[in-house]
Amino acid sequence: MKTALITGASRGLGRALARELARDGWTLVIDARGAAALGAAAAEIRGVAAPGASITAIAGDVADAGHRAALAGAAAEAGGLDLLVNNASTLGTTPMPRLADQPVQDLPGVFATNVLAPLALIQAVLPGLRARRGAVLNISSDAAVEGYPAWGGYGMSKAALEQLSNVLAAEEPDVAVWWADPGEMNTGMLRAAGEDADAAPPPEEAAAAFRRLVAERPASGRYRVADLAGAR
Ligand SMILES: NC(=O)c1ccc[n+]([C@@H]2O[C@H](COP(=O)([O-])OP(=O)(O)OC[C@H]3O[C@@H](n4cnc5c(N)ncnc54)[C@H](OP(=O)(O)O)[C@@H]3O)[C@@H](O)[C@H]2O)c1
């Protein structure tokens, strides 16, 4: 039985990936800040899970050290992790400003959620991941590498997450480290960014591609859903 911790799994990509892995029999630890939505997601995921797969849902903010300790504790209680998915993320300031107008005081919170929380979670579970030859999947964005106007605050945090992943991959030969761009998805985040979310594919498509990534365990590196085999 394999165990994964997926952050931000009450909706969108995190929920879709949790559903995929639960169907495959993974034991899951999932979180989100909103307890009611997380509870509803956990109930739905339990309904599709393979027999024997258990789903532990813990409400909280990944930027909070006490919450991260609770997540790591639940992972240890489940016998240790095979996979950590750092998926929870914030856009930061909305409507999204150009850099000339970006309130600098908003950026520490963006980095706390999108970069520092993933690193702290990695540190908390790394000994177990090494021992089990596990994997880390850090969800990034094309905004990490493209110069999209008004995506600078979020984009610089995703660029930092990517370089964190790049160095981690070089340092940890026993752990597969993937940093991955899911492409545009029809989720609340894309809608909150003011984009036409209805025109984007559902998060289930990226989740299916990530399910294959996890199953095939390719070398550490940057992956785009658009390039993964069998993607649309
Ligand atoms: N949607 C896109 O087009 C797109 C494109 C490229 C990359 N991405 C990336 O894909 C990932 C998933 O995005 P999505 O579109 O699925 O987002 P989403 O629909 O907004 O879902 C985000 C999930 O994360 C949770 N979350 C947010 N902040 C959190 C925090 N501080 N602590 C714990 N949980 C938190 C949310 O629940 P609560 O709000 O209740 O906490 C929710 O469950 C993100 O890393 C995003 O940057 C998305």
Quaternary: single chain
Q: What amount of the residues lies in strands?
A: 5-15%
Question: What share of residues is helical?
Answer: 40-55%
The secondary structure category is alpha/beta
Question: What are the segments in which pLDDT stays under 50 over at least 5 consecutive residues?
Answer: none
Q: Class in CATH?
A: Alpha Beta
Query: Radius of gyration, Cα only, in angstroms?
Result: 16 Å
CATH superfamily: NAD(P)-binding Rossmann-like Domain
Bound molecule types: NADP nicotinamide-adenine-dinucleotide phosphate
Task: Give the count of structural domains.
Answer: 1
CATH topology group: Rossmann fold
Distance, first to last CA: 30 Å
Structure write-up:
- The model has no long low-confidence stretch (mean pLDDT 97).
- The chain has a seven-stranded parallel β-sheet with strand order 3-2-1-4-5-6-7, sandwiched between helices.
- The protein has a single domain (3-227), classed as NAD(P)-binding Rossmann-like Domain (Rossmann fold, 3-Layer(aba) Sandwich), CATH 3.40.50.
- It is α/β, with parallel strands linked by helices.
- It starts with a strand and ends in an 8-residue tail after the last strand.
- Helix 3 (65-77) packs parallel to helix 4 and helix 4 (107-131) runs parallel beside helix 5 (152-171).
- Strand 2, helix 2 (35-48) and strand 3 form a beta-alpha-beta unit.
- It is globular and about 50 Å long.
- It contains seven helices and seven strands.
- The relative contact order is 0.14.
- It binds NADP nicotinamide-adenine-dinucleotide phosphate (NAP).
- NADP nicotinamide-adenine-dinucleotide phosphate is lined by residues 7-14, 31-34, 37, 61-63, 87-90, 113, 139, 141, 182, 184-185, 187-190, 200, 203.
